[in-house]
Give the backbone structure.
Amino acid sequence: MAATLPSVICDDSIIEGDIIVGSANVVSPKCSITVAKPGSRIVIGDGNVFEENVKIVHSGDGEMKIGDNNIFQVGCVFEGLSIGSGSTIEAGANVLGTARIGSNCVLGAKCTTSTALPDNTVVFGTAHIRRVQTRSNRLQANLHARHLEYLREVLPKYHHMRSD
Amino acid sequence: MEDPPCVYDRSEYIETDTGNKVSRYSVICGSQNIVLGGKTVIQRDCMVRGDLRRTGAGHAVVVAIGRYCFLGERCVVRPPCKTYKGQFNYYPMKIADHVFIGEDSVIEAAQIGSYVHIGKNCIIGRFAIIKDCCRILDGAVVPPNAVIPSFSVYGGNPARLVDELPESIQEVYEQHSKEFFEEKFVLA
């Protein structure tokens, strides 16, 4: 992703507080990113996708760091301290206040974590089983890049965009 | 199955010529790409993403929903996406007739057959295919690309076969959805 592309943020989303947004991010309608405490901030990297009904809440002190090329799927809640790059938080998953997510992690649908996930961890199933993925995420990265490209092209045609 | 009638504020719902009732508080994106078959109810805070369409010129139906369907509060219906032959695209989603989708469910299926009952808080993964006469229990997570055969009951995370439905289920669901639409869903 070229660093100069602006982020695509739908007008129907809620973005409140001190938030630094990098380039080429996509924020879908009905998504909310909020900083609860004055003085704290969220720093978002490049090329992240935030889908519908996603809630990113930073209620603690200091900085919440979101890396690059992460995808937050429909209705997930992220309250953790940080997330690396290339991770996927699937639909309905929940990251609680004390968690740090590494890079290339997959937090499966409806899974919850309150502890740190090291790089390449996959969490899945009712029992939130953890496993380390051994395959490279080249395919996923490729898909993500194309997905971003698509969303950046299509969303402005159907939604009002926020002009920063 | 005996539910009391639910009364809703008439001013909240938009009624179309074919008898669809769509809440004004739902979010329908790209409505020109959505087909509702008639007598379908979409409740408040639902999201139907018709904007995520296949690239290319011309008119495309992204979400096709049949007759007597019900989308519960806060559910999200969005078409599935994948790269095929090096091209990223969203693909159309078909929902047939008499389909009930419970509250807070997220649907990314490719196809849902007729007489299907999907519970609350379900997640139907990308490109899942649900055949006719199925039941998905509350809170089930159907993995991407899963195919759910007819007359089966699926539940759990990831969803597994837990039971089978009798052959009469078609009539039961049909009657239930019609009764709901005609008698239980009251606009006052």
